[in-house]
Write a structure and sequence with these properties.
- By secondary structure, the protein is α+β, with helices and mostly antiparallel strands.
- Helix content is about 25%, strand content about 20%.
- It contains four helices and six strands; from the N terminus they run ααβββαβββα.
- It has a three-stranded antiparallel sheet, with helices on one face. A three-stranded antiparallel sheet has the order 4-5-6, covered by helices on one side.
- The longest helix is centred in the C-terminal third of the chain and has 17 residues, at about 160-175.
- It is globular.
Length: about 180
């Protein structure tokens, strides 16, 4: 499966309470290692991040379960409330917020994928050889580093490409700035 490309790149880019009876269902039972606080303001779950990155290689359509796993990996609380047999209400809440909001769709919507880019990182979406790609790059060079961290990925849609690059950046941050 395609992984991130590491190296130097050009600077640029852009930059309520739960309903009664609703139960949070964790996407992953084990949460062994987390970062103290990532620039996104949330602890990142490395095991779930790796799982989500693997899932992004499969399929190209919107995937609400995967959207939920993305936010759980970034430390958000996700609530799935069945409305009918075939319909589910999805809500998320940041650990830094008190209000719930509708679950964004970063696997389908590029604007929602941009919201997963770590704070202080540049991003860009484009095409290379006709295939969608996305990259993220630190704006500042870390002490002791020769170049800013840079992650570039290709996926079947621009939203998934940018989302994957952003998640690689979160994994990099959670590992204390180490590639791996």
């Amino acid at each position: 499966p395609p992984g991130p490309r590491h190296g130097a790149g050009r600077a640029g880019g852009g930059r309520g309470a739960p309903a009664g009876g609703a139960v949070r269902q964790p996407a992953h039972a084990l949460r062994p290692r987390t970062a103290p606080l990532a620039p996104f303001g949330l602890p990142a779950d490395l095991v779930l991040l790796d799982h989500v990155l693997g899932q992004l290689d499969h399929g190209h359509a919107a995937d609400r379960d995967l959207d939920a796993q993305v936010y759980e990996a970034l430390g958000w609380e996700v609530q799935r409330t069945p409305i009918t047999r075939r319909r589910i209400s999805w809500r998320v809440r940041s650990p830094l917020a008190t209000a719930w909001q509708a679950l964004p769709a970063p696997t389908a919507d590029q604007a929602d994928a941009v919201s997963t880019v770590p704070h202080g990182w540049d991003w860009r979406v484009g095409t290379r050889d006709g295939q969608p790609m996305g990259w993220v790059q630190e704006r500042r060079i870390r002490p002791g580093a020769a170049l800013p961290a840079f992650f570039e990925t290709s996926r079947l849609t621009p939203a998934r490409a940018l989302l994957a690059a952003a998640l690689f950046a979160h994994r990099f941050i959670a590992r204390g700035g180490a590639y791996g």
